[in-house]
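step: validate -> pass
step: tokenize input -> pass
step: predict -> running
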Amino acid sequence: MDVLPVEEQPFVVVAAPGETIRDDVAIRSGDLAGHKQRVAQDYPDVETESVLVDAMSAKFVLKPEDLSVVVASNLNADILSDLGSALAGSLGLAASANLNPERRYPSMFEPVHGSAPDIAGQGLANPIGAVGSAALMLEHFGLPEQAARLNRAIEAATAAGILTRDVGGTATTEDVTKALIDHLTN
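step: predict -> pass
step: emit ->
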């Protein structure tokens, strides 16, 4: 599992469905336990913990500083990533990656909010999550310098106060996109 960014805070938490779902998701949680064991074996300096997903939700709210990397099934990760991005201020800010660590299947990169079809074409969608997802994809493809350029553009645009309504600004989707492109081309 060489894809885990554990340099800053070596701690991995596995969110298991526990008794909340007894279908194939519960069966797949065994795979998560295997990931936890592999992380512990491959990275002895990385502390690991298993937490039921409902308790993990509380941890997101009450002790987010204790979390560095969270591994969960697709369903639970979807719920937790929405919660985490909402706590950070908006679903529009959060990038996400569904990684296949073995690289046997394609990985997927998208903003946590998805395509936001309910506000499509209105100039309301925050493009930062999509651009951040592109940065995650570039990093996954082994292009860290290009990923860093995208992240710097995001930081510059937000620091300049070019923000969409969901985070207290007045900018449109096009305004933020233009600011990001300007920072990339200057």
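step: describe -> Strands lie at 11-16, 47-52, 69-72, 95-98, 108-111.
step: cleanup -> pass
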